[in-house]
Amino acid sequence: MSGATEKLILEPERYEFRAAPMHQFELARRDFFKILGAGIAVFAIAKNTLSAQETAPGHRSFHNEELPKDISAWLHVGEDGTVTGFTGKAEIGQNIRTALAQTVADELRVPFESVRMVMADTALTPFDAGTFGSRTTPTMTPQLRRVASAARNLLIEAAAKEWNVAPAGLVAADAKVTDPASGRSLKYAELARGKMLAQNLPAEDPITPAAQWTIAGKPIPKVDGRSFVTGHHQYTTDISLSGMLYGKVLRPPSFGATLISCDDGAAKAMKTVVVVRDGDFVGVAAPSAHEAQRALDAIHAQWKEAPQISNKEIFSYLKQNAAAKTEDRFRKQKGSVEEGLAGAAHRLDATYNVAYIAHAPLEPRAAVAQWADGKLTVWTGTQRPFANRDELADVFHLPESSVRVIVPDTGSAYGGKHTSDAAIEAARLARAAGRPVKVAWTREEEFTWAYFRPAGVIEIKSGIAGDGTLTAWEFHNYHSGSSGIETPYVVANQRTEYHAVPLILRSGSYRGLAATANHFARETHMDALAIAAKMDPLDFRMKNLSNPRMHAVLEAAAKSFGWPRKKTHEGQGFGVACGDEKGSYVATCAEVAVDKKAGAVRVVRLVEAFECGAIVNPDGLRNQVIGAMIQGLGGALFEAIEFENGRITNAHFASYRVPRFRDVPEIEAILLDRKDLPSTGAGETPIMAVAPAIGNAIFDAIGVRLNNLPMVPNGLRSAQD
Amino acid sequence: MPIEIEVNGKRYPVSYPPDTPLLYVLRDELQLSGTKYGCGEGQCGACTVLIAGAPRRSCQIPVSAAAGKSVTTIEGLEKDGRLHPVQQAFLDAGAFQCAYCTSGMIMSSVGLLRTNANPNQAEVVQFLQGNVCRCGTHPRIIEAVRSAAKMLQEHGR
C-alpha cells in the first residue's frame, strides 16, 4: 500500500489548485421528479466560484452520471410542502447539516423543521470535490441560497398565475405566498401540487443579506440530536445488511513491505471463511468479526522489508532531502531581504520543527460494500464521496455510473478521511464473497495505515528597526506545507518559500493543514522579536499589522483576557498569537502555569476571538471553535507519531496522547459576527493560534523558548534537552 | 450450556464464544449498535455500558463475565419515550459534535451520578478522564453532566 506512495511528493493544498472543466448541461427533468415526486425544483449550475474552487485537478469528466454534473446544488419543494435540499457535502461532526438546512429555510421562507438535507450520496446529490478546506460555508451556503431564492420566485409566479395577478406585488413568507391586496394566500404545498416545474438558476439571483436573516444566524441545535443521544444514529460502522460478512485485511509488518510468500491453507479450510489473495492484498471475510480474526491469525505470510528512517532523524532528513528547486507557485518575494536585514537594529534566526500527528477520529475508517447486478454500493465515512467513487470505479474497472458511494453522518474526520482504503477493501472482499462485507479498521490500523499531518522544518530570518517595525522576513517551510505560509504582517522586504520533500510517512490533509505549523513558527518568532524590541507582544503585533479584521480579533481577545496582565505568582505566564487563513481571522490568548521543578506545564486559560464574516449558526460555530482550541492543545503540547523502520511505535491511545478532560483549561470563545461580510469557513482557522499562544505564555513564565511541536511531549525537561 | 445475558431487561442467548468481548456481542449479535468501538483497549470509553449499575468498558469484558448480571446500554436508558435526564442534558447543552463518543460519555455519566449525585467540576473531570472526545466538546459535556445532576435531584428518578 505505501510502496506506491514512497516517491510521491506531498500535494499540500490540493483543493487550492484551479481547474474548472465545464460540462454540457442537459436537464433530465423526468429523472428528478421520478426520484422525488411532483413539485417544484430548482437547479444551480456550477459556474465560476464553485467549480473553480472545488474541482480538483486530474478529475475525470463525469459522463455517466444519472444527474447532470455541473449542478452544484438543488432543491425540491414537494406536494406535501416538504423541502429537500441536495448537496454533495458530508456531515462529519462540523454540524453543517444544520447550518445548510437553516440557510435553505431562511431563503425559501419556510419553517426550519420542514427542510431536510440529502447529503453526500453520489447517486442523489450533485458532484462535489469534497468537504474540506473550510469551503462548505463560503461556497455551499450562497449556492443553496440562490437555489432557494429561485424556488421562491417560481412559487410566486405559480401563485400569480393562479390568481391572474402580477407577481411583483406578492409576498412569500411562512411557507405560503400571499397577495396583500386581496389578503388571499396559497401554501407552498398547494402551489407545488400536481406540478412538475423545474428551472435552472439565473446567475445573479439576489439573496437575502445577513442583516435580514431570520432562521440563519440563530443557534439552532444539531438536526436529529435525539438520534445521537439515544444511540440510534447509524454510523458506517453500525450498518448491518442481511447476510453481511465481517472483513479483515492482513497488514504488512512495516510500510512498503512486499509479500514474499503466504500460506493461507488453514484459513481457507475454515468453512465459513472467504479468503482473498490479489497481489499483495490478503483479506478474509466471515460471518462474525471473531471468526474473521481467527482466519487472519491462521495466515502465515513472509514479507520483504526495507530499512527506513525514524522520528529521531526526521528533521535533518527533511532538510537534506528537499527538492533542489522550489516551484514558482510556492515562492514569493518582495523587496530585498538582504537590504532589510542589513539595515535592521535587531536580527533573529530560528528553526522550528513540527512532528507528524494523527487525526485519530474516534470512529475509525470503515466501509460496507454490496454488489448487485455488477453494480457496487459502498457506505463509508469519507470527506470525498465522489473521489471515492472514482477510485472504486478505477480499481474495479467499472464505469462511474456503476458505483454509488453513500456517506452516513460520520464520526469525525478532521481532514483525515479523504482516502477510500476501507471502501476498496470491503468491496474487494464483497466481490469475492458474493455477499455484503463490512470492514471496520481497528484503532491500531487507524493509527498506522491512515495518513498523517506531515512533519516539517521551518526556518525564519528576520530583522526589525529600533522602533519595532519589521524590516525583513525570510520564511522557509520544508515539507509540512504552504497553507498559511504568508505573513499577515506588513514587511517591505520578504521571501517565502515552500520546499517539497518526498514523503516519508503517508501524509495528507489535516484540520488547518500546514497553517498550524506556519503560524506556530511565525507567531513564536514574532514573540521573540517583540522581546528583542522590548515591546509588549500585543503592541508589537498591532504596530506591524494593517488589516482591521486582524486588529479586531486581537483587541477582542485581549480585552476578554485582560491583556496586559500582571503576574501574581511564580510559574504564571501569558501569551498571545494571531493569524488569518481561508478568509477568517483568529487571535488567541493563553495563560499557563509552569512548575519548573516538576517540569510540568498546565494550560490554565485560553481566550480566543474568531471572525468568519456573517455567522450562520453561532451554536455550531462555538462548538467548532472550542473544539479546534482543544484539538490544537494536543498538537501544541504532546501529540507526536513515533516511528522506526516503517513501523508506528505508538499506535494506541495509551501511547499516543490526545487531549482529555484533565487537559482542558478554562476556555472562552468570542465570536465576532460581521453581518456586513460574506460568511467564510470555520472548521480550520480556530486551531492555528493555540500552539504559539501557549508557547509564548511558557516563555513569559520561565524564559524558555520552545521551538518544536509538540512542545512538552514528556514534560518540560525533555523539551529543553 | 450456552451463555445467556440480560441486556436492558431482556434476556438473550449468546452464540459467540464465551471469551468474546461483550462489545461485539452487543453490536454484532444483538444488533445494539449504540455502544461504540473506539479502541478495543479500554483507553477511550466509547464502549462504556453499565454492568450491575457500574460503568464498564465493554471491549474489556468477556461476555461470559457479564452473564448473570444486568447490562444496560445506551438503548436502555430511554423509558416510555422519555429520555434519561443525562440524555436530555446532553441534548439541551448540545454536548456533542460528531457524537461518536456520546453513548460512552452518557453511560459513564449515568454511572457517575449513581454513586455521586452532585459531583463538582473536578469530580466530573476525574471520572470522565478515561473517555475520549476528539471533537473537543469537553466543556459542554461537563456542563451537561452537572445539569443532569440537578435534574435528577429535582425530579428524582
How would you describe the overall organization of this protein?
The complex is a heterodimer of chains A (721) and B (157). Chain A has 721 residues and is α+β, with helices and mostly antiparallel strands. Chain A is 28% helix and 24% strand. Chain A contains 19 helices and 31 strands. Chain A has a seven-stranded mixed β-sheet, sandwiched between helices. Chain A has a six-stranded mixed β-sheet with strand order 14-24-23-22-15-31. A five-stranded mixed β-sheet of chain A has the order 4-3-2-1-8, sandwiched between helices. In chain A, a hairpin with a 2-residue loop joins strand 5 (171-173) and strand 6 (176-178). In chain A, helix 3 runs parallel beside helix 4, helix 14 runs parallel beside helix 18 (690-702) and helix 17 (618-637) packs across helix 18. Chain A is globular, with a radius of gyration of 27 Å. Chain B has 157 residues and is of the alpha+beta class. Chain B contains six helices and five strands; from the N terminus they run ββαββαβαααα. Chain B has helices at residues 22-29, 63-66, 85-93, 102-115, 121-127, 138-155, and strands at residues 3-7, 10-14, 48-51, 54-57, 70-72. In chain B, helix 3 crosses helix 6. Chain B is globular. The N and C termini of chain B lie far apart (37 Å). The chains are: A alpha+beta (721), B alpha+beta (157). Chains A and B meet through helix 6 and helix 17 of A and helix 1, helix 3, helix 4, helix 5 and helix 6 of B.
